[in-house]
TrEMBL record:
Gene name of the record: pcm
Organism of origin: Sulfitobacter noctilucicola
Active site: 65
TM region(s), chain numbering: none
Family recorded in the similarity comment: Belongs to the methyltransferase superfamily. L-isoaspartyl/D-aspartyl protein methyltransferase family.
Protein name as catalogued: Protein-L-isoaspartate O-methyltransferase
């Protein structure tokens, strides 16, 4: 399908408008979301809906988050260009690609090898050379690269995993959904200060659960 330049520009404007109207107002975040095309992260039947503000199914029974949720989480993470960021839950790779525009280095982990491979191919196509994608159980973080300035978890746990809190730098921020997988979950932001951890609760959300071990495909 060949689209003309006008309809692409129009679609982009609508995409950014939807983000702004849902509270994504940070200029750097909007710039990153403008720069990264969501289309390539969605394959098959649903690819036509890539520019709608909707979560969509991806391989391995997982979902790519809704763009406005990606925007809110990224905004809450307050990423700066010097930051080393850890993401748990690569999924399609879309969130990691956004982060790669804002941070110095991004490590992203998924328990499904297939998702990691597919995401790596897209990162290479898009020349996003500051992302390292790893197949592992992300609940344990990535000790060899710790500590991290920022950590984002895009699957819901009942509580923030201890190893991730431990791998967050002092002054660092972690954003994650907490709650049971089939109940209401809340996005929370954790700041690590010299005096301990400060929590604040953001909006309610719905994410797939953070599961133990590797996915069936490896
Ligand atoms: N951030 C993704 C969406 C993630 S969906 C995007 O932008 O598309 C949640 C992902 O978390 C799924 O791909 C799932 O496989 C992964 N996941 C769940 N539990 C995990 C764990 N313990 N370690 C690593 N990844 C996990």
């Amino acid at each position: 399908m060949n689209e003309d330049a006008d309809s692409i520009a129009e679609r982009k404007m609508q995409f950014l408008y939807a983000l702004r109207s849902k509270g994504v107002t940070d200029a750097r975040v909007l710039g990153a979301m403008e720069a990264v095309d969501r289309g390539p992260f969605i394959k098959g039947l649903f690819s036509e809906r890539a520019y709608e503000d909707m979560p969509l199914p991806i391989a391995c029974g997982q979902t790519i988050s809704q763009p406005s949720v990606v925007g809110m989480m990224t905004q809450a993470l307050e990423v700066s260009p010097r930051d080393k960021v850890l993401e748990i839950g690569t999924g399609s790779g879309y969130q990691a690609a956004i982060l790669s525009k804002l941070a110095r280095r991004v490590y992203t982990i998924d328990r499904h090898r297939r998702l990691v491979h597919e995401a790596r191919a897209i990162f290479a196509d898009m020349d996003l050379v500051n992302i390292t994608a790893i197949t592992a159980d992300g609940s344990f973080g990535l000790a060899e690269q710790a500590p991290f300035d920022r950590i984002i978890v895009t699957a819901a746990a009942e509580d923030p995993p201890g190893p991730l809190l431990a791998q967050l730098k002092e002054g660092g921020i972690m954003v994650l959904p907490v709650g049971q997988s089939d109940a209401v979950q809340h996005l929370i932001r954790v700041r690590k200060t010299a005096d301990g951890l400060e929590y604040d609760e953001m909006r309610s959300v719905r994410f797939v659960p953070l599961l133990e071990g590797l996915g069936k495909d490896g």
